[in-house]
Amino acid sequence: ETGVTQSPTHLIKTRGQQVTLRCSSQSGHNTVSWYQQALGQGPQFIFQYYREEENGRGNFPPRFSGLQFPNYSSELNVNALELDDSALYLCASSLVGASGNTIYFGEGSWLTVV
Amino acid sequence: QKEVEQDPGPLSVPEGAIVSLNCTYSNSAFQYFMWYRQYSRKGPELLMYTYSSGNKEDGRFTAQVDKSSKYISLFIRDSQPSDSATYLCAMSGNTGGTSYGKLTFGQGTILTVHP
Predict the structure, then answer these.
(1) Does B87 touch chain A (CB under 8 A)?
(2) CA-based nearest residue to A31, from A78, A84, A94, A82
(3) Are strands A44-50 and A53-57 parallel, antiparallel or unpaired?
(4) Strands A74-78 and A64-68
(5) Is residue A23 a contact partner of residue A74, using CB atoms and an 8 Å limit?
């Protein structure tokens, strides 16, 4: 049990639609990252939020956006969905400033775009 | 060329075998090295975490990091059927601060331990 919870666990969307995925970080963690994991691949870094601001982005277009709230929960928004967006979306939380800090993942949200 | 290379396998071993999983990387800035275990359709579970070069042991698991060769390994002793999963190596380039959460993953190795 990592203390990182994500919702929804599964969803199906139509190409062109928009989706919002949610994450509740582990208690005390101030940083949240989002990853996309396609079938048979390792997770790919989308972006990270620290103190409610985006702090680094991977190779993903602007239609992938996010928010971090004062309670350190977070959202991932994807606009204009494409078929290739079908994947497992993972949220991970960590604590900046602690020595030997580690990163914990939630169970993910499975997105299917049809 | 990918920053992190991991043999996807699949790897099939008998129960009780010693398993060796490996990753190579090209970015010399990587300082933190992790191994995650991922069961089918679940999120990755942190197994081992190592900072810089050296060895770390936790029960049946041993993680090794050789920064001079840009090579990391995970050894599983006395493997069990419950170890059957995908194993992901991951690494981060920051020695602290807000970049810590930006992990670069390998492709994952599918391991099956049969009774």
Answers:
(1) no
(2) A94
(3) antiparallel
(4) antiparallel
(5) yes
Q: Do residues B89 and B46 make contact, with C-beta atoms less than 8 angstroms apart?
A: no
Q: pLDDT, tens digit, for every residue of B29-70? A: 888 899 999 998 889 999 998 888 889 999 999 999 999 999
Residue in chain B closest to A103 (alpha carbons) equals B101
The tens digit of pLDDT for each residue in A35-60 reads 999 999 999 999 999 888 998 899 99
A78: burial class by Cβ within 10 Å (0-12, 13-18, 19+)? buried
B64: Cα separation from own chain's centroid = 9
Query: Contacts of residue B42 in chain A, CB cutoff 8 Å?
Result: 107-108
Contact B72, B66 (CB under 8 A): yes
Closest residue in chain A to residue B103, using alpha carbons only: A45
**B105 closest CB neighbour out of A31, A42, A55:** A42
User: Is B101 within 8 Å of A2 when comparing Cβ atoms?
Assistant: no
The per-residue pLDDT for range B4-29, each reduced to its tens digit, is 999 878 999 999 999 999 999 999 88
Q: Quick check: A45 and B111 in contact, CB under 8 A?
A: no
Residues of B with Cβ-Cβ distance to A86 under 8 angstroms: none
| pLDDT single digits (tens) A57-94 | 999 999 999 999 988 899 999 999 999 999 999 999 88
